[in-house]
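Appendix B. One record, verbatim.
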Amino acid sequence: MAGNSLRGAAKEVLQKWRDEERPAIASHRYLAPETTGFAPVMGESKPCFAYGYAAQAVEIEVDIELGTVNVLSVTPTTDVGKAINPMQVEGQIEGAIVQALGYILTENLIEKEGHIKTDQLSTYLTPTAQDIPNRIKPIILEGHDPNGPWGAIGMGEMPFLPLAPAVIAAVHDATGVWFDKFPLTPQRVKAGLDKSQL
């Protein structure tokens, strides 16, 4: 009797499969490797079990009369271990770049005597659709990491980090001037360019 009910269940599952009704049923348990804090004397530690890597190339325009910097294109290369959901990885990369554009170009937090002077969106400028580069072409590298779940590396805001040095290096390439403070507001860029010509 049990054999008949199993055969009936198997036939039902097979028919669902043929009818394109294919639910994914699985279970998996992932336990991350142990990490450690810094040792008090030598500082030795294992603070992370999987490291991510990112690099970016940018193309910019600098208006030397106005001091404006316009990022035309960004080519971010990000090693994510295994891109479990590649479209979501691309979206994360693009979002981090737009966020980093504000960090490097417009979001000028001004504080004086403990009071924030740029406390409105009219004075603390975040990127808008107009500020997004015409071209963001993510390159996703998949250097499988044996410690991550299914070989993945958590990327979080990793693509945020390389944009500031890439833009500052590109401004140097375009103008010959290094900037060691940002955001690269038009006032700061213009002042730096004027100072370099003295």
